[in-house]
Amino acid sequence: MPTEAPALVSPAGRPGPGTAPLPLSDWRDYVALLKPRVMSLVVFTAACGLLLAPRALPPFLAGVAILAIAVGAGAAGAFNQWLEADLDRCMARTRNRPLPSGRLARENALAFAVLLAVFSVTVMAFAANLLAAGLLAASIVFYAVIYTLWLKPRTPQNIVIGGAAGAFPPVIGWAAASGDLGLLPALLFLIIFLWTPPHFWSLALFLNGDYGRAGIPMLPVTHGPRHTRRQILLYSVALALVSLAPVPTGLAGPLYGAAALGLAALFLWFAIRVSKNAATDPCQMQPEKRLFAFSILYLFLLFAALVADSLVAAA
Amino acid sequence: MTTWSPEEERAFVARRRRRNLAIGIVLGLFAALFYGITISRMTL
């Protein structure tokens, strides 16, 4: 196996005297840099934004636009891991990532991230329009600089404001197809924006020790589990209201309304169970783990219902 | 001073060849992608 070759190469890439050891890496490490699981949600919500737009891109260009958004999300993930390599080393959940484990050199990760970011924005500009390319560039910068570098190590509100980075994809999808923005993409943005705090805080509750050891001021670390659970409930109520907003504003029909009502009720039920839990031991945080798992399903199903509703209305 | 054994050198060369092939494929796909985008936009 080539990956079992000794990790000693010269600056020119050849073995030779006076060389410094370089970590061994293969393509799987580069794929891991992209945070593929996060990317799946990004691709799905972006595709929904693209499908909901009043104008349709030709299928090939639509596919390329989705590819650009996926690669852009990957670039943001790679920047994030490059910036947080030292922090990731302190957390059990992240210490096996390519950079903290030493399998990938930091400069290679940075070069990869820059390359992907330039590629994604350029391709979006050529395949769709400058508005979509500008939004994609802004989302990458927002995630890497505003969230990772600035907010995350400084404030317990990090994921509240940083959640905007994850809320960009459906707006970019919409902009790629239509060339402008409107009320529905703004609502899609708001849904993901308000969904992010309960999603991440439920995770942070049962990973509290990890975040504390890494010195990241997540809300459960700075304000304790009780305050965090109350905040989760408040954001869940706001999320439920915004999820239903497309119906009274005439942007979605009864099919979406029924799905949103059921999903929002379930989300609130899970959030209420979290708010009633007083456990501090992660082993007793089943409500938090259930809310975290359901929140991912919630976003998938809510966006799928919106697309299904628009297809039914168009038929 | 560090030197590689013939076996290590072969593994290194094989790995480098694979990397070059991958870069070639990526660049080819990149050219094909922009060709496709250009053709699609001409029909808009």
Write the layout of secondary structure elements.
The complex is a heterodimer of chains A (315) and B (44).
Chain A: E1 8-9, E2 20-21, H1 27-33, H2 36-52, H3 59-83, H4 85-88, H5 106-127, H6 130-151, H7 158-178, H8 183-206, H9 208-214, H10 219-244, H11 254-276, H12 286-314
Antiparallel strand pairs in A: 1-2
Chain B: H1 6-42
Task: Explain what you see.
By secondary structure, chain A is mainly alpha-helical. Chain A has twelve helices and two strands; from the N terminus they run ββαααααααααααα. A two-stranded antiparallel sheet of chain A has the order 1-2. Chain B is mainly α. Chain B has one helix at 6-42. In chain B, 0% of the residues are buried. The chains are: A mainly alpha (315), B mainly alpha (44). Chains A and B meet through strand 1, helix 3 and helix 5 of A and helix 1 of B.
What fraction, in percent, of the residue positions of chain B are helical? over 70%
Estimate the mean pLDDT confidence of chain B.
88
Distance between the amino and carboxyl termini of chain B: 62 Å
Oligomer: heterodimer
How many helices of chain B? The count is 1
Q: How is the main sheet of chain B built?
A: none
Beta-strand fraction estimate of chain A: under 5%
Q: Provide the low-confidence segments of chain B as ranges.
A: none
Which word captures the global form of chain B?
A: rod-shaped
Reported for the largest beta sheet of chain A, the result is: 2 strands, antiparallel
Structural class of chain A: mainly alpha
- Helix % of chain A is over 70%
